[in-house]
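[Protein data]
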Amino acid sequence: MPKRDDIRRVMIIGSGPIVIGQACEFDYSGTQACKALRSLGYEVVLVNSNPATIMTDPGMADVTYIEPLNVERMRQIIEQERPDALLPNLGGQTGLNLASELAKAGVLDEFGVKVIGVQVDAIERGEDRIIFKELMNRLEIDVPRSEPAYTVETAEAIAADLGYPVVVRPAYTMGGTGGGLVYNVNELREIVRRGLSASMIGQVLIEESVLGWEELELEVVRDAKNQMITVCYIENIDAMGIHTGDSFCSAPMLTIETELQARLQTYSYRIAEAIQVVGGTNIQFAHDPRTGRVVIIEINPRTSRSSALASKATGFPIARVSALLAAGLTLDEIPYWRDGTLEKYTPSGDYVVIKFARWAFEKFPGSLDRLGTQMRAVGEVMSIGKTYKEALQKAIRSLEIGRYGLGGARDYARRSLDELMDLLREPTSERQFILYEALRKGADPEALYARTAIKPWFLQQMLELVQLEEEILAYRGSLPPAELLAQAKRDGFADRYLAGLLGIPERMVRERREELGIVQGWDMVPVSAAEDAVYYYSTYNAPNRVQTDRRRKVMILGGGPNRIGQGIEFDYCCVHAAFALRDEGIETIMVNCNPETVSTDYDTSDRLYFEPLTLEDVLSIYEAEQPEGVIVQFGGQTPLNLAEDLAAAGVRILGTSPAAIAMAEDRDLFRKRMEELGIPMPESGMASTFEEARAIAEQVGYPVIVRPSFVLGGRGMEVVHNEEMLAQYVASAVEVSPERPILVDRFLQNATEAEADALADGTDAFVPSVMEHIELAGVHSGDSACVIPPVTISAEHLRTISEYTARIARELDVVGLINVQLAIENGQVYVLEANPRASRTVPLVSKVCGLSMARLATRLMLGEPLSTLNLRPMEIPHYGVKEAVFPFGMFPEVDPLLGPEMRSTGEVLGLAESYGLAFYKAEEAAKPALPTSGTVLISVAEKNEAVVRVARGFQAMGFHIRATEGTQRYLAEHGIESEFILKLAEGRPNIVDEIVNGQIHIVVNTPIGQRSHLDDSYLRKAAIQYKVPYITTLAAALASVEGISAGLAGQGSVRSLQSYHSDIAFR
């Protein structure tokens, strides 16, 4: 079938901000869809609220809207753009839910918009648990016994009938949001309440538990001719009971009989045909290995997290193919490298792929490291090897958690076998590492299977690694025999890990194996639906099959797994570097191990290496390819940590030198350089012991901000209010030593924070705009709401900020990008830190200011002077407000208080002609939206003019004010009427009762000092659970007043990014 000629303009809905359960895999799928549809000649209208994505770049679609993803905004865009069709199944759960809501609201019918790829009723069949169950019964496919519930009381009755444990599954959610495995009625009540709140239709399914069964996934693709193929079979090595996003898994299935795989395929094809999806569908099954019973757990009639993994694991670009099929093509019209066309596709490949999740429990003090049916991972890695052992070990060193193998983690080697078995009672992020030490101590694999439900085959593979490691340990202090070293490399042991086992430098291991000819071969994964496309992986279990050439080429080091502090923004920069190099006619080599990203898409670079970002792996690629240089400043901390070692090994680093990067990272060295330049910084000192830290704190005065050197995302950073807190920090929070000192800074109170991203060529620097933080200093820049251009910073201070940024860039000899963070206290501009690399704000500045900073920086790194880029000061007539998005809903036990350690997973952007409206739209996009009427709760520690302004602002807009005792008294003194409300410990009805009852619509709660931080945590947790906007700084409260006022005056129109850019004037 040819492409459809009844449509000309297609709208794609993105997935919004990065959240747990819905991450950058949807930037990858949306970007592929844009490219696929435009290649067929369609116009593409893209809508997304996430500025950090490649898909929202103005060149990716014909028209781009960065707007809140809700029915009213979508209606405005549809009315303005008049698309012929809507493609909703590449934007995750957000895209599906929004398409369903638009259909129900009559918007699609009103404007004659066809839904392509997946029909609206198919969304209901996949997502509504009642309809899904009825469909499965009709198809004669078994499902776990279950009943839907719309109230807690109904859920209790169903659970009593099914028998505990039961699983709670909210409808229309992703990442297991709001759900969980419950063992008693008290747990049930709490999780059902959460699930009903999370569900778009207030529905949860109470389901029999299949805990411990095998969890198996299929990715299938169907076309309009009803031709179907299975792209990938995924075996979750962790059994049922752990969310697939957290589960350790393999492709292909390694222990599942061919007969069972065929049965799962038959079921999957029945389902795909019944729901009539055109494109990709993910289907999850549970299999009881004792009885052979198979039940279907869920279907995702869209590209999913597993789709990204399946795509990268097999070389089959599911999102691209789904978009082509939605446009009318069929599988027999799309090329397939092996058998001609795609309807003949079958999974092939003589390799094993492993996915391992990356968590961030350390970012959330008080969180429980427990894995269950609600996803907790913030990222993942993918590795490719010829054997399970090789792929497993590559996955571990890809995680970037300071581990290069399975042994030696934490104190597990010192624990007794009984202690280790106790630690395995509940699944945690450490489970594989605990298993390794348990096997070393003689644990029976059958006993471990009984405890963890991880199958004996996988445990046996791990046991063989333990046994080999024990053989290697016998040679500690020297090098092992050649055959033992070769076997270790065939089984995936890293040079660095072997060096640690043997007690010798990594260099010695590397040199010895190279002398012996023990080197990796390179193999390739062919790409389907594309002409002559492949990507590469290393193996010690096969000869080299990859030829390299001597063309001019540059290597780009990616950012590895997503994590808090290092996310999609850095992938954005790496992708733009590849695009810029291609424009210059230079071959690009991308190195990354993250399957969710655009950088690991087959057509982003000329040569993609799906490899860990370690010194060993990067040097191996460098030696094979011999590029003219390596770009390290775009991938976040990951490549920066390698820069000095790479340079020492003779690698040419393009752009800013590793020495300059290291100098900026060394806080003490950087401070001395700033003193020489006469650029003020807050008083501080470096401490290697508690006594030194205490002396510095006494000298500069409490509160102080303490942090280790060489971190990203504010890792280990804290505001310390007294000596007791300082002692606790030094004792438990960080390892402090002369090699690992901490920086103790005076904490700037009531200071306005700002930052500047600049382009520099070693001589000159260009700052397109300064970004003003809306939260005061003390909240991590990644978590703070901020605005471009600035709103309250004076022209004099803006000049000072630009001057300091340019001077620092020159001093550090920056070539490429630099980010400088500053604070203004009592009329004085202080520099807080400088990062001579890409920052997470680069995509944001690029989108608001209309220039591609990463592309321009790449040209500078290639030697082009800044003067040739034709950059001029600009007048930006609009405002862009970034708001951070947090995963506190996934961590209900954690106090959602912001501080100097970053905790957000993603961000949204609000664009408008006024600051107030931009802030309002940013909050609308981040959710929950700011209310325009109702009751505000004010409970603040500060008693100052800002509190009065906030209260008067809400009063003027007609809000009813509730206040706690001290705040009520202060407001009364200033003539502001409020109604008293009890705190939790003061009686009933109290704040939480009012929040639960829906009688409070916005919360302003600003804790100051250690005790207040703890006292009001219940209030903030309740606000999160019941989706009430909560504000923890007066600066943000003032911005909210301005935003709500703008919203009341009219919630503004929608405008395309291209339209905003066309209005920018140049001086």
Remarks:
- The longest strand covers residues 815-825.
- Residues 668 and 686 are 6 Å apart (CA to CA).
